[in-house]
């Protein structure tokens, strides 16, 4: 439980750090970095429900895209500004590290395992977000607006 | 809304400036294509043929009298992410779609956005916060987070200084990860209380092209295949050089 709380808090502060690096303007910092916390929370729930990597990542990324689209409408800003900070905690930094660490030790089996996990995270993030974007795109073409 | 196009060449040049700015701050390919098409039509073009990939922009504008006008722009350098500028460009294009500015005003507005000076202190603090947070996020303790934050600052300075020495991003990643990997391994060897792997993971998050990689897979999935494949291969190369640099660092210290 303690680990989960630490993860949720650091997911948010980590997203906040990236918002600063990407020069997000002040008023949007809090809603954008809160997305990181929510997104990781959804990932943990998905992990509990289905296990594995791909499905929880997909669901969590779809959630992040939905969160971003809704905030974008509410705060009148492009959705990317909220989507990228939200999915930052899903970026597979640790599996990439362990893949190369095991490669350095010439433990190829483990290295391959971690490399596959890294790819699954990347694919899951992209696929999940695409589902939501496709849905919003369809809605947009029904409503038929002219400007972005 | 239809404006007579007095200087279609100048207008098209301005639109390409806009596309270049958007790509340099991290806008997606299909967003750039959409923006250019809409803006061209708002200025009175009969038809817009826009083709954007991350390294080139090609636009053919069909004028109301039926003549074609084509300009292209080569985009060099991968560009970064700057949400403030991205938002400003978005607002500008939206405004132009509703009430097209004169070409001179549009050109002036774009030039005004190019004057940076962003405050680097916040970017530095952001790097430290992100590196420290993710060291703890992936299981590091308080000290690991603090050391990762210090190296986050180091990476920030490398990112400010090194690209002029190493314009190739793969080489930049190799050098900066070799330097930080060696230094972190040394820290781990001197202070046994630290977990060098967690510190490195925190700092990898700053260097890993995770967003670019996700965007490239997304580009492929939404149909911008060429852009997606290009960017995917670039990011795999960057991630590979990053991994090589850290591995070499670990190997040198003998971890």
Number of helices in the DSSP assignment of chain A: 6
Biggest β-sheet strands, sense, barrel of chain B: 3 strands, antiparallel
How many domain units of chain A?
Answer: 1
Bin the helical content of chain B. 55-70%
List low-pLDDT spans of chain B. none
Number of strands of chain B: 3
* Relative strand content of chain A: under 5%
**Gyration radius over CA of chain B:** 22 Å
Any overview of this molecule?
The complex is a heterodimer of chains A (148) and B (255). Chain A is mainly α and 148 residues long. Chain A has one domain. Helices cover 83% and strands 0% of the residues of chain A. In chain A, helix 1 runs antiparallel to helix 2, helix 3 (54-75) runs antiparallel to helix 4 and helix 5 runs antiparallel to helix 6 (108-143). Chain A starts with a helix and ends in a 5-residue tail after the last helix. With 255 residues, chain B is mainly alpha-helical. Chain B has two domains: 8-114, no CATH class; 120-253, no CATH class. Helices cover 69% and strands 8% of the residues of chain B. Chain B is built from ten helices and three strands. Chain B has helices spanning 8-24, 29-42, 83-98, 103-114, 120-137, 142-165, 169-190, 196-207, 210-222, 225-253, and strands at residues 47-53, 56-62, 68-74. In chain B, strands 1-2-3 form a three-stranded antiparallel β-sheet, covered by helices on one side. The model of chain B has no long low-confidence stretch (mean pLDDT 88). The interface between A and B is large, with 49 and 60 residues.
């Amino acid at each position: 439980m303690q680990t989960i709380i630490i993860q949720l808090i650091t997911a948010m502060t980590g997203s906040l750090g990236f918002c600063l690096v990407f020069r997000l303007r002040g008023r949007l910092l809090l809603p954008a970095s809160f997305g990181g916390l929510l997104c990781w929370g959804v990932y943990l729930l998905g992990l509990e429900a289905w296990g594995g990597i791909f499905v929880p990542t997909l669901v969590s990324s779809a959630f992040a895209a939905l969160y971003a689209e809704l905030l974008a409408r509410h705060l009148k800003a492009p959705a990317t500004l909220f989507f990228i900070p939200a999915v930052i905690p899903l970026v597979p930094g640790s599996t990439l590290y362990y893949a190369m660490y095991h490669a350095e030790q010439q433990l190829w089996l483990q290295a391959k395992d971690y490399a596959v996990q890294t790819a699954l995270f990347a694919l899951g993030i992209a696929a999940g977000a695409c589902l939501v974007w496709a849905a919003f795109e369809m809605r947009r073409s029904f409503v038929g607006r002219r400007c972005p | 809304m239809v404006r007579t196009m007095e200087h279609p060449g100048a207008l098209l040049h301005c639109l390409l400036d806009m596309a270049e700015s958007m790509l340099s701050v991290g806008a997606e390919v299909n967003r750039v294509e959409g923006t250019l098409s809409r803006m061209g039509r708002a200025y009175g073009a009969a038809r817009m043929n826009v083709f954007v990939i991350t390294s080139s922009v090609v636009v053919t504008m069909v004028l109301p009298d039926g003549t074609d006008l084509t300009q292209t722009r080569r985009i060099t350098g991968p560009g970064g992410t700057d949400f403030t500028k991205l938002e400003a460009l978005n607002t500008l294009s939206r405004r132009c779609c509703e009430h097209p500015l004169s070409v001179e005003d549009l050109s002036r507005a774009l030039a005004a956005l190019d004057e940076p000076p962003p405050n680097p202190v916040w970017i530095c603090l952001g790097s430290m916060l992100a590196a420290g947070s993710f060291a703890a996020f992936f299981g590091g303790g308080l000290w690991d987070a603090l050391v990762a934050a210090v190296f986050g600052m180091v990476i920030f300075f490398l990112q400010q200084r090194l690209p002029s020495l190493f314009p190739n991003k793969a080489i930049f990643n190799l050098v900066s990860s070799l330097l930080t990997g060696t230094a972190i391994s040394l820290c781990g060897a001197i202070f046994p209380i630290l977990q060098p792997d967690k510190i490195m993971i925190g700092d990898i998050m700053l260097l890993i092209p995770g967003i670019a990689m996700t965007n490239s897979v997304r580009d492929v999935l939404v149909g911008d295949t060429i852009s997606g494949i290009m960017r995917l291969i670039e990011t795999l190369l960057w991630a590979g050089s990053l991994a090589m640099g850290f591995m070499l660092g670990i190997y040198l210290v003998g971890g």
